[in-house]
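Fresh eyes needed here. Have a critical look at this protein's tokenised backbone.
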Amino acid sequence: AVADSAFPGAYAIVGRHDQILARYGAGHLDWAPSPRPDEHTLWDMASLTKVTALAPAMMQLVERGAVDVEAPVQRYLPQWTGPNKERVLVRHLLTHSSGLPAWRPLYKEAATPDSAMALVYATQLDSMPGVRMLYSDLNAILLGEIVRVVTGSRLDAYDASHVFGPLKMRETMYLPPASLRSRIAPTEIDPWRQRHLRGEVHDENAYALGGVSAHAGLFSSAHDMARYAQMYLNEGVLDGARIATAETVRQFTTVRDSAFSPRALLWETP
């Protein structure tokens, strides 16, 4: 892929539940002269934020009984109002079947993170909940709001304390500091911001929301993502740190209704 100019560089890591089998870096961080990627290179995780930052937080809240997947979203976000929104369950957000549109250009419509979030709350359904599966960043953003309301912590702070800290994922974070810039892979020269993006989230809506969102914004490394994958393969535990019970992991990774879509809770399946 590097030889084909698909990207300037990449890092691959292959492992099992108990060991890493292979690691390999290819190319360079940027088209310009730059280092070869390694397992500590930081990457913009884009929509993998949904399953790396949002999913474990939701697993823990569901496991504790703080969030009920069969409850109406309005139980947790009463100000999320509009036609038929009272019919939307947390499960609908988790399976992308809420009836919300796929996307909205918040970054073009809002001047501040608060006004961008207000637009998320104001966005109306364009179909009834449960009728179709439509992958939507808006579902994830609202789930991040549920985490914030229920825990009193923004998603970045919650995960740092309850997920990434216990898993020793020290290279996984939102809003990486400037001191780490040399280790971060750039994403692109962004036509909207008119600059080379490196160390700031590429996703425009996540940027408009202040850089911390449940749909995008996370940065991580191959080293940390391997640890995260091993936690799942070990049914919720790694090196003595239990993130969720085996039952909860199965609940979130089992297809809900194969006749409807191949989605589990937040996860897509083959």
Q: What stands out?
A: The longest helix spans residues 49-64. The chain has nine helices and nine strands. The mean pLDDT is 97.
